[in-house]
Design a protein that fits this description.
Blueprint (H helix, E strand, L loop, with lengths): L33 H20 L17 E5 L3 E7 L8 E6 L2 E8 L18 E8 L10 E5 L2 E7 L15
Antiparallel strand pairs: 1-2, 2-7, 3-4, 4-5, 6-7
């Protein structure tokens, strides 16, 4: 935009016929192509459909028919300790084994056969076989493993092998 020249003393006023005038226009939101939005929604819909087209295994199929008990593994100076939640089981229904540095807990929770009159509104407890395998972080003495089961908690104490235990080394002065 050009401004008119200021007049100095003794100068003639020159007017410019090429003055640019500013026009005031109302702001208009840019119009985007409606098709691009629909294309994005369409591809999102296709992705969601693809997700639900995947045939999820049912609870009765092989993947979800078993259950997996929660467990903790912790280390103290001389032992590895594994605690697993196995409520409602008898000790005869629990198997503990160790092979090549892998501890395996397995067993089966049997469904109660008692049938009550009426309708079941909710059934969330898992029944059936389970198996959990844990790779142990250090070597253990498999001949001295001890397992106890009390109040639905299985505790497995795995003494570390002598070569895996920390050793105190005396420093000599020469």
């Amino acid at each position: 935009m050009a401004f008119p020249k200021l007049k100095r003393k003794g100068e003639e006023t020159k007017t410019t016929s090429n003055l640019n005038h500013m026009s005031i226009i109302r702001y208009q939101v840019p119009q985007l192509s409606n098709w691009s939005s629909f294309d994005r929604l369409s591809s999102l819909r296709d992705e969601v459909n693809r997700l639900f087209d995947f045939s999820w295994p049912s609870r009765d199929s092989g993947l979800f028919s078993g259950w997996s008990p929660a467990l903790d593994v912790f280390d103290d100076k001389d032992n590895l300790v594994v605690k697993a939640e196995l409520p409602g089981l008898k000790k005869e229904e629990i198997n503990v084994s160790i092979h090549d540095g892998v501890l395996t807990l397995s067993g089966e929770r049997k469904r109660e056969t008692e049938k009550k009159e009426g309708e079941t509104f909710r059934s969330e407890r898992y029944f059936g076989k389970f198996q959990r395998s844990v790779t142990l972080p250090t070597a253990v003495d498999s001949n001295k493993v001890n397992a106890t089961y009390k109040d639905g908690i299985l505790t497995v104490e795995l003494p570390k092998a002598e070569e895996a235990k920390p050793k105190q080394i005396a420093v000599s002065v020469s």
